Amino acid sequence: MNSSSLSSLCCRRSALRQSVAHYRRFASASTASPKSAPPSPKNRWVGIAIITIAAGSTGAYLRSQSPASDTLNPETFTKYSLVSREPVSSTSSLFTLRPRYHSDRNYDVYEDAWRIGVWSVMFKQPQLQIGRDYTPLPVTAATPLTVDEENEGYLRFFIRKDPFGEVSRYLHSLSIGADIEMRGPQIECAIPKETQEVLFIAGGTGIAPALQAGYSLLNRTTEENRPRIHIFWANRLKEDCIGGQSDTPVLETVRRSWFSGWFGSSKNTSSNDQAALHSLEDKSTSMIVRELDGLKSQYPGQVTVDYYLDEENRFIGKKEISDYIASTPRPLDNVPGRKLILVSGPEGFISYMVGPKVWADGKELQGPLRGIIKELDLKGWAVWKL
Ligand SMILES: Cc1cc2nc3c(=O)[nH]c(=O)nc-3n(C[C@H](O)[C@H](O)[C@H](O)COP(=O)(O)OP(=O)(O)OC[C@H]3O[C@@H](n4cnc5c(N)ncnc54)[C@H](O)[C@@H]3O)c2cc1C
């Protein structure tokens, strides 16, 4: 797919994590020109007037002090309560949040976003007045949410605690029942209705958008339409993906560890984290692996996952990606939107795979395709950096 067709298919809110107003834009993997997004009648938040004052540096203040709303919306912050925080590994947890005040409309807001593709919300750190984006997990067969909780607008998040990170540390320090303010949805990538094949390359918590992409894509399954998603999920430590079994035999490769610097070190694990880790050792399958397995059993033959572990010197490389590309049906080649490679994870991970995103005029853009994927014969696959 060429850059202009990609730009008309995928859209992403600029990740102005500290921006004072929400806006949407289109961009492509090979151009730095943002375009306006056409309003869609289905999505109430799409047509909202767009006024952006960008603040591009980490730590800039959120100046939006609009009154809180009962329903999640991109303009004002909505209060949620922390229902639970369960460790997934020594460095990450599953957060369950529910709207602080009742609203009949939250469910519809989420549904609109799920239909489009990959989306996020921004959490506010009230003392520092800064915000960070996080990715709601889809509700699947493996999800421990009741129908009532779902209807009430509960949301779940898989969040890594960065030992030096302002907002992730704040979130991990909150007591159960504490308020968390968020705004959104922010569409990160619309998955075109033509899409039949998604190759999702995820690093660490980048698996959350992969689950979203899978959920959104596979929900479109009919007798005639059976889209597929293959996920490469790279983790630094085994405990991050306990119980995960790769669907493709994985070649043992030893390369420079591109994860070590970017996922941080686990050596400074606190005693609380150690306790959480010990309780995890009792569980044979991590919660995220269960979610992936749930998708697989719900859509047999349409979901495959390969796990890569830094600590076992197994990394996602050119060979793994090109082998997968070569294995997909050729008739889909060169049909715009049919085949999509999505890459999500820490900045260094994205740069290594597809080159960095770039900032221009206070907006974050896709930037040119670089990294190891640029060196492959993509055979019509479009690429999107999340
Ligand atoms: C669309 C989107 C969705 C996301 N979804 C998720 C999700 O579902 N789960 C999840 O865990 N994360 C997710 N993230 C990442 C998340 O938004 C945060 O970036 C992450 O939690 C770290 O934020 P923080 O405030 O804790 O760390 P920050 O305070 O932003 O710090 C991050 C790192 O940078 C270092 N650093 C900060 N400032 C400097 C500096 N001046 N010089 C050198 N180093 C510096 C810090 O030491 C730290 O290691 C998502 C990001 C995006 C853009």
Question: Could you explain how this protein is built, in words?
Answer:
The structure is a single chain. With 386 residues, this protein is of the alpha/beta class. It folds into two domains: 57-188, Beta Barrel (Elongation Factor Tu (Ef-tu), domain 3), CATH 2.40.30; 190-385, Rossmann fold (3-Layer(aba) Sandwich), CATH 3.40.50. 24% of the residues lie in helices and 23% in strands. The strands form three sheets. The protein has a six-stranded antiparallel sheet with strand order 4-3-6-1-2-5. Strand 3 and strand 4 (130-134) form a beta hairpin. The model is unreliable at 1-65, 251-269 and 273-278 (pLDDT under 50). Residues 15, 58, 120, 132-135, 157-160, 162, 164-169, 188, 205, 208 line the site of flavin-adenine dinucleotide. Its cofactor is FAD.
